[in-house]
Predict the 3D structure of the following.
Amino acid sequence: MKKECTYNGCVHEEVINRNTWMRILNVGHERDVNKGGYADSQSECVKFWCGPDNKPKDPYWERVDIRRCELNYPRSYVGGVYGEWGEESNEVILHFVIMPYEKAEVIVGEGFFGSIFYEGLGKAVGDFVSDADLKWMISEFEKLRKEAKIGS
Ligand SMILES: [Zn+2]
């Protein structure tokens, strides 16, 4: 992570072409969580939610009871890819911000908002992000990118 990044919780960055980013956002709408997909496209962000059959390969996720709640399918929030207009007119900097709330709650054993005292230290949800979480996010993002390329 670059020190100057202002996106709180950013664990990975990529630079992509603006047109590609716009197409990825469109594909995200088609792969919406409420249509059985794992994406939730917003104006400059794609959020990713995992499900019982598609989640990060992290043992803690096995303990998360992924429920439907207000969505049409059982899903649990993993994180978002936020696009920031770059200095070059045709590029966008992507910030991968991972916030696995329900996994963090399984680890600490209780629900929390903001921060919690755990194993003697103050922790925020971002402290519970694993390599598997990031790997899953990148893999889901790549699925959208691949579809965006096919559709162009
Ligand atoms: Zn960043």
